[in-house]
Design a protein that fits this description.
Elements: H1 5-11, H2 20-37, H3 44-51, H4 55-61, H5 65-74, H6 88-96, H7 105-120, H8 122-149, H9 159-163, H10 165-175, H11 183-198
């Protein structure tokens, strides 16, 4: 005998999606905890408690901690497009200084909190490189490409290589040498290393 309609409803209940403002509240809570304790100590339980949501609600939307953290990182209000000022130096300073850039202490703390996870969590590392670093890398390369099109810099550059140079140098100094990123440091790297390396001789 086939089950009654009411029995079918009980067996396959509708599972509401987490979306809109409620989703962003959960993602914001994730970022807060990430900045406070790091990726390794962040748990779905802690996010659920901070966001006043059930853990089941989180798992209906995110299958894993890695997925939740990546979505939180890419949803940040501080995320912004790189500037297009018509001048490479101004583009670089505008992109890497200020809110959402390398001088943003909160952003630096968040980045530092996921460094260990990149080496230990294969799922997280793959999604981090694809969904978080990938778009930033593409926008940075686009700044240099526009400069090439303007005739401002050499045309024979490896753009992927040169686009990674500025953040690579600044983050190396921050995390390994303990030298906090400042607008002055970034300007020095741009003026003394990046521009001499790319401009027409």
């Amino acid at each position: 005998m086939s089950p009654t309609p009411s029995a079918q409803t009980e067996e396959a209940p509708t599972r509401p999606r987490v979306e809109g403002e409620r989703e962003q509240e959960i993602l914001d809570s994730t970022i807060d905890i990430l900045a406070e304790v790091g990726y390794d100590r962040l748990t779905m339980d802690a996010v659920a408690t901070r966001a006043k949501a059930s853990k089941a609600t989180l798992y209906r939307r995110w299958n894993s901690k890695a997925q939740l953290v990546i979505d939180a990182l890419t949803s940040q209000k501080e995320h912004h497009d790189f500037p297009d000022t018509g001048n490479l130096r101004d583009d670089l300073l505008g992109a890497f200084c200020g809110m959402g850039g390398l001088t943003d202490g909160r952003q630096l703390a968040i980045l530092g909190s996921v460094i260990t996870a990149i080496g230990r969590d294969e799922e997280f590392a793959e999604r981090f490189r694809q969904d978080f670093i990938g778009p930033k890398k593409a926008m940075s390369a686009a700044m240099f490409r526009r400069a090439q099109e303007r005739g401002e810099i050499r045309g024979d550059l490896d753009l992927d290589l040169i686009a990674a140079a500025l953040p690579g140098i600044v983050l190396h100094r921050a995390f390994l040498l303990g030298d906090p990123p400042t607008p002055e440091l970034i300007a020095k790297v741009v003026d003394q290393l990046i521009l001499p390396a790319v401009t027409l001789g």
